Amino acid sequence: MNSIGEQRRSSIMDELSRQRVVRVGDLSAQFEVSEVSIRRDLERLEQLGMLKRVHGGAIAFPADPPGWSTSVCGEGLSGQGTYRPRLPPN
User: Fold this and answer.
1) What is the pLDDT of residue 84?
2) Which of 35, 40, 51, 90 has the fewest CB atoms within 10 Å, counting from its CB?
3) pLDDT tens digits, one per residue of 22-59
4) CA 51 to chain centre
């Protein structure tokens, strides 16, 4: 049987597949858990290669075209940051 955390992470991935971006505060309210719990869930999902964490939430992975990566500078999901595409290392 799946733990509550596993079920929540699965629901987070469902939301991410629909919206392409999730925010810690929104997920915390939706699942009625602390933001710390959501951050742990996002960290675990990132370790599994399922999403990319950014300031304030996460984005669907891969969010970039194959062979490219994005560096996020500034405030991430707040809209104040700058996204800089970079070519992969040779």
Assistant:
1) 45
2) 90
3) 999 999 999 999 999 999 999 999 999 999 999 999 99
4) 5
Residues 6+ apart with CB under 8 A from 74: 55, 80, 81, 82
Backbone angles phi, psi at 59, to 5 degrees: -120, 155
Distances (CA, A) of 22 to 25, 76, 78: 9, 12, 12
| CA–CA gap between residue 67 and residue 65 (Å, rounded) | 6
Full set of structural domains in the chain with CATH: 4-64 (1.10.10.10)
Structure tokens at 69: 């990566």
Backbone angles phi, psi at 36, to 5 degrees: -60, -45
